[in-house]
Amino acid sequence: MLAFVLFGVFFLLVFLNVPIAVSLGLSSLVGLVAAHFPFSMFPSIIYTAIGKFALLAIPFFILAGVIMEYAGISQRLIRFATVCVGHTRSGLISVVVIVSCFFAAISGSGPATVAALGSILIPAMADAGYDKGMSTALMSASGAIGIIIPPSIAYIVYASIADVSVGALFSGGILPGIIVGLAYIGAALYSSRGDGKRDIARQPKASARERWLAFKDAFWGLMTPVIILGGIYGGIFTPTEAAGVAVIYGLFVGMFVYREIKVKDLWKLLVDSAISSSVVMFIIAGASTFAWLLATTHIAGDISSAMLGLGTNKTVMLLIINVVFLIAGCFLDANSAYYILIPIMMPIARAFNIDPVHFGVFLTVNMAIGLITPPVGINLYVGCNIANITVVEVCKKILPFVVAGIVALLLITFVPWITLFLPEYLR
């Protein structure tokens, strides 16, 4: 009965268009009352959930991403990618995906990647002759790679729930992120196959000197993921400490190398990052109480047992898990989905001997696809706002990217080596 109350109130609030964080918090409060727990437990559960040391990396990585955006890193990365591959057939398509992968390794957020790069790349593609809807769909899909390629906020949240190494998840997400990027390039080439009739403009081929100058200009930005990931895998600092190092490095680059950040900009920069961080932590606070109720009242265990009773075929169970998360991604962000579903799914993963790192990575690929699927695909809304077109127009163009993402997801799900190669090599 409690499960119906908990999930019923939550989905009712979601369909009433109440924000996800508020829906999670209110449904958890109703669940506490229905389960006869004292109301005073609510703040203590929240404090325990968000007081974890690993979660301290979230506001730091968000701040680092904002600093890098203010420092002009995105424009320099775009310039470097353009002089390298912009002259090739459909070169701008490759530029969008390549730069998204690099910026993902800085921001760790899908919507942030779309917001930082879309204002430059979507108009550039439209000016070159590409369909505006397809350009927006490509940018929205490529931005979703931000939660697959490390550092990723989704990995940090998953690691705190499943008690898995953040560093292993970071290394495990590199190859899957590249595979998803290649899949999106293929989808974009398929979608733009008729655009040749409109004479797609190619960028002029850059000279060796122009490429060298663009590389020098983008060097400090390109070094950001090298410092963050190299420091983690080299044992120099933990993922949480790496987030702090990224902030200091970003400020140094922005204020003293590129000189794009002035002292007067610091207040706005801190406010922007504080707003983004508070949104994420608010979601975690509400979702953690929801997850605590699922675990304490044995709802999660009962659902897990019911799913295990569906059969003993590992392939079938993996498909079921993927379907569940693909559907969840249509309505929930990764952080909320993890707190609600991981307590249910983790016992199933253990029962089928699924590696927790592999499990976390292919679930994150699921949630990345969710960023571009209506009705809650936030990347679509960010991209449409930048391109000044309707979501309906983009939805018509997003289907090839969803299909390409699902194909990549199935490959990553059923070939664990893709995820586990680097974590095992770096162990």
Question: Can you walk through the features of this model?
Answer:
This protein is an all-alpha fold. It has one domain (54-279, 298-426). The chain has 21 helices and no strands. Helix 15 crosses helix 17. The longest helix has 31 residues, at 266-296. The radius of gyration is 21 Å and the shape is globular. The termini are far apart.
Summarize the structure in short.
Helix content is 77%, strand content 0%.
Comma- or semicolon-separated keywords:
427 residues, mainly alpha, 21 helices
Q: Helical segment tally? A: 21
Taking all Cα atoms into account, the compactness measure Rg is 21 Å
Distance separating the two termini: 46 Å
**Average pLDDT figure:** 84
Write the layout of secondary structure elements.
Elements: H1 2-15, H2 20-34, H3 41-50, H4 57-70, H5 73-85, H6 91-107, H7 110-128, H8 132-143, H9 153-162, H10 166-172, H11 174-191, H12 208-233, H13 239-257, H14 266-296, H15 299-308, H16 314-329, H17 334-351, H18 356-370, H19 378-387, H20 391-414, H21 417-426
